[in-house]
Amino acid sequence: MKPTRGKTPKKTPRRPQQTNKAKDPVEVYCRLRPPNDDQTDVCAEVLSDAVLLLRPSETARVNRIGELKETQHTFKFVFPPETSQKTLFDMVALPLVQDVIQGKNGLLFTYGVTGSGKTHTVQGTPADHGLLPRCLDVIFNSIGELQAKRCVFKPDKVNGMDLQTEADAMLERQRKLQQDLLVPPKTPTTPRRNGGDDWQNFPYVADPTKVETVDEDNAYAVFVSFIEIYNNYIYDLLEESPTSVPSTPRAPFKFQSDDGNGIAPQSKILREDMNHNMYVYGATEVEVKNPEEACEQLIKGQKRRRVAHTQLNMASSRSHSVFLIRVAQAPLDPEGEEVLQDKSQVCVSQLALVDLAGSERTNRTKNTGDRLREASNINASLMVLRTCIEILRENQTTISNRIVPYRDSKVTHLFKNYFEGEGKVRMVICVNPSASDYEETIHVMRFAELTQEVEITRQKEVRFDTGLTPGRRKANQMYREALENFERGEQDANFLLPGRPGYSLGPPWPCLELTAASDSVTLQNLIQFLVDREACRRTLCEDLCRKHGVMRTQLLDLEKNNIFLRQEMESLQEQLTGKGKDLERAKKKIENLEYKNEVLRRTAQLYDEEKKEMENELKSKDHQISSRTAESRRLRQTMKAIEQTKDAKWEKECDRRMKQQRLELQNKMWVKEEKLRQLKEIVSKDGKRRAKSPPPKPTAPPVRLNHRRSRSASGDRWLDHKPVCNLDTETVLQPQLKKKMTVSVPDVKNIKKTDKYLLTHQEEDSQGEIETKLIKGDVFKSRAGGHSVQFTDIEVLKQEAPPESRKRSASEDIEEEHSGDWTDVETRCAIAVEGHDRRASAKRHKV
Ligand SMILES: Nc1ncnc2c1ncn2[C@@H]1O[C@H](COP(=O)(O)OP(=O)(O)OP(=O)(O)O)[C@@H](O)[C@H]1O
């Protein structure tokens, strides 16, 4: 069974590392082209070296598009219409050329509305070259003499550069020459744009500028490639036309190749090299040795580039073109003769000149068919560029880390590395001042201003650390000149540089011509000459051996010295690094300590403040305590005084009560004694009366029986409630209860066990007589489960001395009693059930 293949893991996007490297903003220049004619209504004006003024056109006003007031746009520099190509080049492209020679990358692109002069700016005219030919001029002016032999540097097809010896390079050159000779000469093609032939035939005026800061101990080589991005497909403009390549499905249409055959171009793909740089895989790279050769390639590619006639431009670019100049450099060997064969020492820098196709509105161009499709692809790719710039800016100015959609378009994908900090980026905004372009120009301005805010990490200058002596090339040249002079006999061998062979086998060959077979003189001379030469050769060999020995010894000494110095340097370097680290650590420690010190100082300050606050609080609390102590002392004294007053009052009250009780008791005693006395009197009187008269006939039954039997004689159980304070009146009218339970203080249990209730209540009347009330009631079970007493009857028993005037009946007494004391008795009865004892005794006291 076939094993199932796992899904290819998704590549995590590389994020640019946050470094502290210096950054430069993208420099944006603005070039205003001259109007088409004097009658053209213009909407743009140069206000100053850096400010461009845009005035809204009438159509914009009508359509209400863009700002409806004048707007000013600031750039690094604004070039007025009369600016020459040379001025523009010196300010915009020359620094990029200097960079590329010093091993740094650069990207220059033109941007603008269709017909605004982008191609004119990049290429120029045969009479007045644009930025691109001038870049090539300056590069070759600067490194022309320092170039390595052709084929010494050899592209490795994966965006890197291989090296080969001069001998191998010569062999390769010969191979190529042979191949070229085998290919039949091509038929010249019709020039398609910018008149390729015009360029070739026009007297060439090279830009004379030369970069001075070139490392002469390096050997250089220049490679060019030219591609176009058409409908988001990449095509190689320098590719040799294949004779039998089938049309690719991707190729949108066949274009006229330079050999006149209608052959479909093969689209290329983008790849990432080992250093994560994007490159067009399989794009032709041509090594050029002078500006003419480079321009030849430019013209060749330009002829193939897709251009078309539109309403707005006679020859409008229908694709984005990218001209890549790659400068390879590597150090010379110690003798300054050949390139050092060390691939790791090769530095390749790249200058990309991009002529973007112009943004265009279809309602203005009136394009249809292919042109319309091209226009929409152009606009889409420009839109991606804008989006990338916007997101880049957003990522740089805010904390957001959005993914920049470089891959959405081939243009942005190809130059992704530039925006991520692999080179300098410059942009030239081309502006057509024509008022009809206003609406699109205003969008271009906004994009340009946005681009200026994007920052690119500054690239470091490349320095080769070969350890070789500088000035090798010059020394070698001097040596060669000296050698030539010596060989010409104009200079003596002492002038030769040390370490270089300066031997000669003697004077040139004499004229030795054998005139006859017997010419022994000539032979003799020849033998002598050869012997001399042999002797000379031997001397030179010996000298050479000696010198070799000396040299070897010197070299060994030097090497030893060198090794020793190197070791010493390394140890010093280590020490230095260690010291540096120590210093760094100490610095950090000091910073930490300072910080801690500061923290402690602040803490101490806080504590001090807190301490002061607490002291204040303590003081106020002390004050409060002392005032409270004083207050409590005062209160205690007051309380004491009150207690004393109360005690005195209570003492007085007690005395008064005691007196009162004593008085009461005395009264009672007196009453009893009086009663006793009266009873004695009655008894003694009765004794006397019984003796004299017959006993009286009973006229009526005794009141007592009638009254008592009615209720008490039943079988009910009675609760006889007699408070302890009750006095035994010893009256004959006492209730007779068969079943009774006598209590001084009734409780619920007692009440539960009985059916009837009787309260015997005694009071002292105004005459000091004891009045006994018998209050009767029925005991009921309450609904709530308790017991209640319902009072049903009150009997009042009153003792008094028999009145002199009239004898009152008991019923009259009761009535009288009822009328006067009823309320009081009722209240008392109520209390009797719940807690008679206390209230009753209190009442008694009150009485
Ligand atoms: N600065 C200038 N001086 C003189 N002529 C100019 C200038 N700029 C542009 N032109 C002329 O304007 C015309 C259009 O220019 P060009 O083809 O360079 O525009 P473009 O922006 O490349 O257009 P497209 O995007 O359609 O390719 C050309 O004839 C060119 O010669």
- Average pLDDT metric: 78
The number of domains is 3
Could you tell me the strand content as a percent range? 15-25%
As residue ranges, the low-confidence spans are 1-17, 188-195, 243-260, 497-502, 691-712, 805-847
Distance between the termini: 124 Å
Broad CATH class of the largest domain? Alpha Beta
Class per helix and strand makeup: alpha+beta
The count of DSSP E runs of length 2 or more, i.e. the number of strands, is 27
Relevant CATH superfamily of the largest domain: Kinesin motor domain
Q: What does this protein look like?
A:
With 847 residues, the protein is α+β, with helices and mostly antiparallel strands. The protein has three domains: 23-242 and 250-457, Kinesin motor domain (Kinesin), CATH 3.40.850; 539-605; 713-846, Kinesin-like protein Kif23, Arf6-interacting domain (Immunoglobulin-like), CATH 2.60.40.4330. Helix content is 45%, strand content 18%. Strands 2, 6, 7, 10, 11, 14, 15, 16, 19, 20 and 21 form an eleven-stranded mixed beta sheet that branches. A five-stranded mixed beta sheet has the order 24-23-25-26-27. Helix 2 (85-101) crosses helix 4. The longest helix is centred in the last third of the chain and has 173 residues, at 520-692. The protein is elongated. 28% of the residues are buried. The model is unreliable at 1-17, 188-195, 243-260, 497-502, 691-712 and 805-847 (pLDDT under 50). Bound molecules: adenosine-5'-triphosphate. Adenosine-5'-triphosphate binds at residues 33-34, 112, 114-120, 313, 315-317, 357-358, 430. Adenosine-5'-triphosphate is lined by residues 33-34, 112, 114-120, 313, 315-317, 357-358, 430.
